[in-house]
Amino acid sequence: MNSPLLNRVFQRLFSHETCSRIRYRRPLGLHEPGRLLRPSRHVSTAKSHDDDSTRESNWQQRTDLFPQDKSADFEKYPMVTADMLRSRKERPKRVKMLTRDFIEDSLYNPNYGYFSKQVVIFSPGEPFDFHSMRDELEFNHLLGKRYTEFEDKLDAISPNETRQLWHTPTELFRPYYGEAIARYLVENYKLSHHPYHDLIIYELGAGNGTLMLNILDHIRDIYPDVYDRTKFKVIEISSALAAMQTSQLSRSSSARGHSDHVEIINKSIFDWDTYIPEQCWVLALEVFDNFAHDSIRYDPFTERPLQGNVLIDNSGDFYEFYTHEIDPVASRFLRVRSIACSQPFDHPLKGSRILRNLKARLPFAANLTVPEYIPTRLMQFFDILHEYFPHHRLLTSDFHSLPNTIKGYNSPVVQTRYQRRVVPVSTPFVQQGYFDILFPTNFEVIEDIYRAMTGKLTRVSTHESFLKRWAYVEDTQTKSGENPLLSWYKNASVMSTV
Predict the structure, then answer these.
(1) Among candidates 429, 332, 425, 406, which has minimal Cα distance to 102?
(2) In 10 A of CB 363, how many CB atoms?
(3) What DSSP state is assigned to residue 79?
(4) Which of 314, 430, 463, 481 is deepest in the core (most CB within 10 A)?
(5) Contact between 390 and 282 (Cβ < 8 Å)
(6) pLDDT tens, residue by residue, 85-100
(7) pLDDT grade, residue 289 (50/70/90)?
(8) Sheet holding 458-462, edge to edge
(9) What are the E-state strand segments in 205-258?
């Protein structure tokens, strides 16, 4: 669905041309590099593949028809970061930035970011009665019906053809999913901390606040002695969602009883600067997938990495450049991964170097590998856990694979909704704030990096096996024996600190 016609549709829809161009910028001074509803080729005319300077000076764009040369603009436009753009109310022009800063700005800018302004989290209303359902097919039908009813009510108040609506397992399987998390927390708390320490829980990105309430309800009802010592703290970057979470605490007498146990902290986890000496749990459920990534390509002959930048011109169009100047964050990630990972992992340079060189010599072959998206922001999150939460235990769940990803390694799904239909595109360089940019998580790599950076031990399991252990699975079983709680999210994994 990423055709020129579609691009023109979105140009009118969002008053912005959704386009991406790729450039290789010849370095001026080379140096060695120290979220489920689920970019182009170059040719080299170099005479010798062993002569770097000759090859670099002749790389040319081939896929776009008569593309504009933006090299001069790339030299003169200022480099900005997502932090520098936080106070902007309009999307920037005549600037350049790293890929990770573009993604961060697109998703989290307070004034036009996807999570700040566009996202609506689906709530099905009353919990589903799984025991009355014939099978999983009926669950899918009822879910679709409630989706329609939910959006019809929103449109009756304020029609919106570009509403970004998505769901979470917490909402679909309320309260059973939250109760499973609560059992995991309490049982592990009793084994290690009770009764000498409080049960302190930090949740990152609490959405509607449903998981928070389900966990606290279950602890209060089943473990009253633990509830007395429970403190639940939400770290929420979105002001709108933080306000919603606060309002959830006053919607019923049952929820109001939790007020003394809850604190809503409206800030980004990446702005965290408070040392937490206590032992605590950190919940990061479906959070890693929307952490910003850097884009890295490699020279197929020298194997040197190049880092992705995006230029935004005076018209608001996007042009992608790759340079040998690797910034310290991306350079550090590459070093840490190289040292920490105990098992081979997929990346553009995996495989035979001889075959790769032969393929690169073919006519019309690309001068760079396909991009690899590296989770640099996730590495910075581990830094914060290590520095400010030294006694934490992490529980995270996210997607280890995703359908319909764009071209590359560890590449994201980039999609929006228009007239209640999902529209995927093939580049992350699209109108900021209107598109979800959702990455898979390679848990084998991330587990090794987390262990190396924090010194803690971990366990990785499938989403299904985690729930089989901690959920009362009979609560979500249909008459046929099918269980949507277990069969949904087959492409998700759970990692926990042990």
Answers:
(1) 429
(2) 5
(3) B
(4) 430
(5) no
(6) 999 999 999 999 999 9
(7) very high
(8) 262-265, 230-235, 199-204, 280-285, 392-399, 492-497, 458-462
(9) 230-235
Q: Which two tokens stand for residue 153?
A: 């009510």
Residue whose token pair is 């040292």: 339
The SS3 assignment for 231 reads strand
DSSP H or E segment with residue 305: strand 305-312
Residue 268, exposed/middle/buried by CB under 10 A (0-12, 13-18, 19+)? middle
User: Which residue, among 17, 25, 163, has the nearest Cα to 91 in the 3D structure?
Assistant: 17
List Cα–Cα distances, 22 to 170, 230, 317, in angstroms. Answer: 39, 51, 12
Map residue 71 onto helix, strand or coil.
Answer: helix
Mean pLDDT of the chain: 88
Q: β-pairing, 230-235 with 199-204?
A: parallel
> Residue 317: phi, psi to the nearest 5?
-85, 155
Rounded to the nearest 10 degrees, the angle between the axes of helix 328-340 and helix 376-388 is: 80
What whole-number distance in Å separates Cα of residue 63 and Cα of residue 346?
26
d(CA 32, CA 321): 18
185 is written with which tokens?
């927390």
Structure confidence at residue 29 as a pLDDT band (50, 70, 90) = very low
For the record, the structure tokens of 209 come out as 């606040």
> How much is the pLDDT for 10?
53
Cβ neighbors of 80 (< 8 A, separation 6 or more) are 92, 95, 96, 97, 101
* CB burial string 208-232: b at 16+ within 10 A, e below: bbbbbbbbbbbbbeebeebbebbeb
Rounded-to-integer distance, Cα 139 and Cα 133, Å: 7
Query: pLDDT by residue (tens digit) across 318-346?
Result: 999 999 999 999 999 999 999 999 889 99
Q: What is the dihedral of CA 215, 220, 222, 227, to 10 degrees?
A: 90
Q: Where are the alpha helices (DSSP H) in 31-82?
A: 52-56, 71-76
| Cα distance between residue 333 and residue 484, in whole Å | 37
Measured CA distances, 238 to 69, 117, 255, 269 (Å)? 38, 9, 21, 11
Tokens of 340: 């920490």
Give Cα 494 distance to the centre of its chain: 15
State how far the alpha carbon of 300 is from the alpha carbons of 144, 158, 303, 304, 481, in Å.
47, 52, 5, 8, 52
- Alpha carbon dihedral 13, 155, 130, 222, in 10-degree steps, equals 100
| Cβ contact 422:415 at 8 Å | yes
